[in-house]
Amino acid sequence: MNEGAWRRGVNVDEIPFGEIAFSSMTIVLEKLIEDVDKGALCVHHGVIHKKEGYSPSDPMGYELRDYIAMTTTKSAL
Q: How far is it, in rounded angstroms, from Cα 27 to Cα 62?
């Protein structure tokens, strides 16, 4: 997906999560969707740990460790 598609408003169901090359982008999009659903933007922090035996580009080959989220505002959405 290119930046222009995001700006014009892509439906969440249209996001090809299995095709995203970087696990960090998958996590960012998932957390943004959670924030929008909650109606509050958060600051997210965690460690992306690559699972042993998975290729670096495998969308299921990671886990998010030591994760915390801090709500920043409810009015930004």
A: 10
pTM: 0.73
Residue 23 CA, chain-centre distance (Å), reads: 8
C-alpha distances out from residue 11 to 22, 67, 77, Å = 20, 26, 16
- Both tokens of 18, joined, read 């299995």
The ranges assigned to domains in the chain are 3-73
Distances (CA, A) of 60 to 10, 69, 71: 23, 22, 27
Lowest mean pLDDT across 50-54, 66-70, 72-76:
72-76
Contact 40, 20 (CB under 8 A): no
The answer to whether the beta carbons of residues 27 and 35 sit under 8 Å apart is no
Total number of residues shown for the chain: 77
Q: Report how far residue 1's alpha carbon sits from residue 69's, in angstroms, rounded to the nearest whole number.
A: 26
